[in-house]
């Protein structure tokens, strides 16, 4: 329904459920009275029974979808024993604060501007009061309060001589939670709960475990002590009482206000954030309070992200890989990819060896993958030029005579090898002899080389004789004397079969090539020479050698090439 000249944009879904509904014969007119409806009606559905909550939700979803209406449905309630009020402020829009305890004590934002009031909370969205006229009102009445807990970020220094602020109060001049110097007759107070008749339980600045940002406050009734225990950030605080005594048992109060009007006694309105307000009808244990405090910073799924971070990102706090792409949410965030998009990948995913060849440490070249797999160099003489200007930083120059290196890594079922090559050598015969070896396995199972001036890969067949062995050579020559980017990958198929791909300068040159070739290449890979034959040493330069334990996509291979542009 709507009541102006705009039809679809202001159309609303309205639901009425009753067990004693008497439909009228008229639509748009109130019985015999001359009260007429002005506006448009989109659709009316009438049932001869009371629909269940789930049925109503389905009907509303149908109408919303049919008429293009965004539904503001209440969030799912949380069932927890003794929880009689829970407002998590996760709406992120509008002015209604839903009570998720199941007791329907929804709150309302007053005086707020939607674009300003909704901000990041400790878990998901929260609200920030502007200190002018913003207020949160909750119609909460006639219930026992044995535990009252919330998160708050005041946005200003909490200090013993600071200006007094009422974070919260109950109806008019009722019980209130105060911050800073709120009682001139008391020295050092920084936070407390006070009744209008003077009874107060407070903590001094010296005993307050408070931070500069978000703080967790819990008040827990202890009948034996006849007062509320105060917990700040998970730890029970040493509290004091006013001359009138401790704040008494909180029972049967009505209406809660956050950021209420100043009292006129020198205090100011609260201008900060609040989130995760909970009220229980029983006294939570110290362990339960500590768990509430620790929950936002916990990491239940061990993905390296706290619950707060997961909520803000929208990832699943109980699933370390929300998009099921094989990489944890924490790793994706650290590498700048989207943990909710399985197609969003990083050049660091699966990177097992990365030799940028920007310098040596003794006879080792550093591994930048973080896996500590440096190449050990052999044959490089002190009087020869080893390090030259590369495509990305420096590069390593092989003399074609006796220079080579070993890499402590084993290729698995799926892999990608990528590197930059610069050479003019044209050695090679039709029998795969006299090639320039780039990378090979100790058992001669895989061989990546420059053969007759072209990019070639070789793989021994799993069945002998090797009719199905891998022999793949590019059509284009790559011994141009300029830097050329090469990549070679294997994707596991079934059994010992795999699909092989080759790339030149970021573009696919061949593949998939389906072959019965599958080998574990042993504990080492050789760089710059084959296993047999002194003629098989590389004459040329290598740069930015990378080995992955996964198959890079065409786009990812191109991205590696583009790093050198």
From TrEMBL:
Keywords: Calcium, Disulfide bond, Secreted, Signal. It is found in: Secreted. Gene3D superfamilies: 2.60.120.200. Residues 315-327 have a biased composition (Acidic residues). Residues 312-342 are annotated as: Disordered. Residues 154-287, 413-555 form the LamG-like jellyroll fold domain. This is LamG-like jellyroll fold domain-containing protein. It comes from marine metagenome.
